[in-house]
Amino acid sequence: MLISYNLNDSKKMTPKQRARVYRVILETGIPYAVADATVGEIDAVGIEAAFVLALNRAGSSLMSNQQDRYAKIALLIDGRRYKDLKIRDVSMSEAIDFEVVAEDKLDQTSATVALASVVAKVHQEITMLGLDLIYPEYGFAKHNGYPTKAHKEAVAEHGLSAVHRTTWNVS
Predict the structure, then answer these.
(1) How far from each other are the two terminal CA atoms of the chain, in whole angstroms?
(2) What is the pLDDT of residues 40-99, one digit of tens each?
(3) Are the C-beta atoms of residues 157 and 142 closer than 8 Å to each other?
(4) Are 107 and 78 a contacting pair, CB within 8 Å?
(5) Cys bridge to 117: 10, 24, 75, 149, which one at CB 3.0-4.6 A?
(6) Hey, what's the signal peptide range on this chain (predicted)?
(7) 158 with 138: CB under 8 angstroms?
(8) Half-sphere exposure (CA, 13 Å, Cβ side) for 56?
(9) What is the domain partition of the chain in residue ranges?
(10) Whose CA is closest to 160, among 49, 48, 151?
């Protein structure tokens, strides 16, 4: 089923293709975790530190669902700039360091990362659809939170909403 999709770039897949792949992931029970950082956290510590915070949350979530607490879990990250990250599961009484594998374009060589990219993109799309219902004037369903011309114009007209980062550069 998954072979029929070009999984090496979730952004090149249509929303319908991503939804089909996501459904297969759910049906097969492939373990995954999605974690976010809040707007407040991003504004307080910056986007990179908030990314690391979300990685820690996702890793800890995966560990809490493991039958074997000492099972080896590696975090695969698309982006070499993260190769020196130290990620730990601190959800239990003892902290466990995760192995981190970070390489550029890892989504093109790792089926696991390609599938994770689909999960992340579907999560983003679902989140943006929800935000679009609450803040229709910003058009989140159309731009998925990216700083498009229309998004910038909406912010210029309506100001920042409660879900916009105050540190976001709208120019």
Answers:
(1) 43
(2) 999 999 998 898 889 888 877 877 776 665 566 777 888 888 877 776 665 555 556 777
(3) no
(4) yes
(5) 10
(6) none
(7) yes
(8) 18
(9) 13-158
(10) 151
